[in-house]
């Protein structure tokens, strides 16, 4: 490799920002001058906590409750997804819920087969809030 090639590679290395420096979300806006400007928006961290009974009977209706928050504030009108975790490589969405004004939600369901079921909720995030997943809860269903 010649000196010019080495200089070119060195310049590229110095001028290209690392991937870690790229913000997760960017927005375009129009400045008063009419130019388009891109600016970074940092997503706020989120937390999704759920509770459910550890044991239920088959065909017994029970409630899973949860709350989606950012800091101490609830995130309202957000869709969260209920997942059935069958194995490390297999999971299914069982339903969706929308959070209330304080970030809380309740899902009522029943299971018609005995066994042990692992469930979890997820939130996809948006421009303002980061995605997250809840704790995993195991529910044992008996006859």
Provide the CATH superfamily of the domain at 47-142: SOR catalytic domain
Task: Output mean pLDDT.
Answer: 79
Percent helix: under 10%
Low-confidence stretches: 1-26
Explain how this protein is built.
Helices cover 9% and strands 49% of the residues. With 143 residues, the chain is mostly beta strands. It is elongated, with a radius of gyration of 23 Å. Residues 1-26 have low confidence and may be disordered.
Write the layout of secondary structure elements.
Elements: H1 3-15, E1 26-30, E2 36-40, E3 47-51, E4 55-57, E5 62-70, E6 73-74, E7 79-87, E8 90-98, E9 104-109, E10 115-123, E11 132-133, E12 137-142
Parallel strand pairs: 4-12
Antiparallel strand pairs: 1-2, 3-5, 5-6, 5-9, 7-8, 7-10, 10-11, 10-12
Outline of this structure?
The chain is mainly beta. It has 1 helix and 12 strands.
Key words describing this protein structure:
mainly beta, 143 residues, Immunoglobulin-like, six-stranded mixed beta sheet
């Amino acid at each position: 490799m010649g000196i010019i090639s080495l200089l070119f590679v060195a310049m590229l290395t110095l001028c290209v920002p690392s991937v870690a420096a790229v913000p997760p979300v960017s927005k375009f806006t129009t400045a008063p001058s009419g130019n388009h400007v891109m600016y970074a928006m940092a997503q706020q961290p989120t937390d999704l906590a759920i509770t459910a009974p550890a044991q239920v009977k088959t065909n017994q209706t029970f409630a899973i409750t949860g709350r989606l928050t950012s800091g101490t504030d609830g995130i309202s009108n957000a869709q969260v997804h209920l997942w059935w975790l069958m194995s490390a490589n297999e999971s299914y969405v069982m339903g969706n819920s929308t959070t209330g004004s304080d970030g809380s939600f309740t899902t009522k369901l029943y299971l018609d087969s005995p066994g042990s079921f692992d469930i979890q909720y997820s939130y996809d995030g948006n421009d303002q809030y980061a995605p997250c997943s809840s704790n995993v809860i195991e529910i044992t269903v008996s006859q």
